[in-house]
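Please, why this fold?
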Amino acid sequence: MKNYLKSFNILSNDDIELFESKVTYKKLEKGDFFIKEGKTCKEIAFVISGIFRSFYYSSSSEEVTYCFTFSNSFVSAYSSFLSQAKTAENIQALTAVELLVISRDEILKLENSSSNWLRFFKLIAEQEYIEMEKRIFILQKETAEKRYQDLLTNAPEYLQLIPLNYLSSYLGITQRHLSRIRANISN
């Protein structure tokens, strides 16, 4: 985590040490939830190891996977965290996960302690927005084949680590369609 925080070249060593003093270690088993729909998100976590999937239920009660979170990144039900409204999302561990968790109250204290934290959190929010926009554009503009090819190129770890039922949901296609795409690409 320390190296990740340093990589932004915003936070001082003192800022990072203060952050480290505020986090608590937590372990989740495969299938456990970081947060469930209907709860209010009151924490952010840094993923030391493991994989999360974020999903919601469609109007027809189908699970729709929209995001995966791997190690060396932050995870949260961000809209709920910001607004303190109940979330519509579920964040579930696909593997055993090790986390460093920090509460919303401690985040707010950090923001008040140094402008470096405001700059850091602004940068993280901007990066999340850009990723979300890319995801929306690729889902709306590209074919399923192109979306799969994009994953092959830009996130091959998804294809190796994510079960096909979640991967097909993430791509917005059926598992059968995903199998056909994979067969066509490997030929």
Q: What stands out?
A: The two ends are 41 Å apart (CA to CA). The chain has nine helices and eight strands. Residues 43 and 107 are 9 Å apart (CA to CA). The chain has a mean pLDDT of 93.
